[in-house]
Amino acid sequence: MSARPLEQAAQATKTAFVFPGQGSQKVGMLAELAEQFSGVRDTFAEASEALGFDLWHIAQSGEGLDQTEFTQPVLLTASIALWRVWLELGGVVPKYLAGHSLGEYSALVAAGAMSLGDAVKLVNLRGKLMQSAVPQGQGAMAAILGLEDAKVLELCAEVSAQGQGSVEAANYNAQGQVVIAGDKAAVEAVMAMAKEQSGKAIALPVSVPSHCSLMKPAAEQFAHALEQTAIELPSIPVIQNVNAEIATDVAQLRQALTAQLYQSVQWTKTMQTVQDQGIQYIVECGPGNVLANLAKRLPNIEKAFPIDTKGRVEDALNAILVAEGKIA
């Protein structure tokens, strides 16, 4: 389906697609769907050719899957493979797209803003730059649960002022769920203080402290690669991470992608924007169901669906076609 029909089809729907970020990967992802739909392997072959190494092998064997430079292109490719399966089956074209962190690139490819080949090259580089910005073991991330956003920010400011390193809010995922990132000692100090405040703190198994000021050197280098990449305005509106707004020009889009490396992911505001636009159905287009589960907690979202298996794709396809009045 070309960009123009996508754009027209997207207008008459109450569905939005969301694309997950790093952490949703799992060994063997999309294996079942690949047996049913040749387009899955074709999509991985297309992306692998652009990069010069076998993404499907990494996805199925797990070799290198925990290394950021490989995780990011594998996840992006998996999301686009699912997007293509959805369209092939006649699924509803969503009115809005959004992606969590890395997932923003999946959303932009789905919306025709950049090619899959260019996008996997970008995120492969993004992963390398992020990894090299902070030596292994010196950075950390943690999820803080059960505290108000303002309290988490207060704890981060307090620890940063004590000289233990920097720590900041990295992802505002939902009410009462904020991910922090920064220097390992500072992150651990905030975790301890959060528990003292009756909150929960969970260390995340990541090798890079994303979406904090430690990533500024990576962002400066990444900006050059973005400038060299062909980007168009999306044919379906994409809500961006850093401001929960829809890009209205390409320069703004590039700027937001650069800032995304070292600024917080505004997912709570992004999902509020989605609800404000009258969206009632959410489809998570990628491995897993983390974003679908977050969406289920929202007051105006009637249903949220993951689509990473054949059964889940069919369930979502039929439920949304009925709900949207496309079939009786």
Strand arrangement within the widest β-sheet reads 7-2-1-8-9
* Shape verdict: globular
| Strand content bin | 5-15%
Helix content: 40-55%
Q: What's the number of domains?
A: 2
The first-level CATH class of the largest domain is given as: Alpha Beta
N-to-C SSE string, H for helix and E for strand: HEHHHHEHHEHEEHEHEHHEHEH
Total strands: the figure is: 9
N-end to C-end Cα span: 24 Å
Describe the biggest sheet?
5 strands, parallel
Q: Briefly, what is this?
A:
By secondary structure, this protein is an alpha/beta fold.
Walkthrough of the structure:
With 328 residues, this protein is an alpha/beta fold. It folds into 2 domains: 3-133 and 214-323, Malonyl-Coenzyme A Acyl Carrier Protein, domain 2, CATH 3.40.366; 139-206, Alpha-Beta Plaits. The chain has 14 helices and 9 strands. The chain has helices spanning 3-10, 31-36, 38-51, 55-61, 68-88, 103-110, 116-133, 149-161, 184-196, 216-227, 250-260, 267-276, 290-295, 310-323; strands at 15-19, 96-99, 139-145, 167-174, 177-183, 200-203, 238-239, 281-284, 303-306. The strands form 2 sheets. The protein has a 5-stranded parallel β-sheet with strand order 7-2-1-8-9. It has a 4-stranded antiparallel β-sheet with strand order 4-5-3-6. α13 links the parallel β8 (281-284) and β9 (303-306).
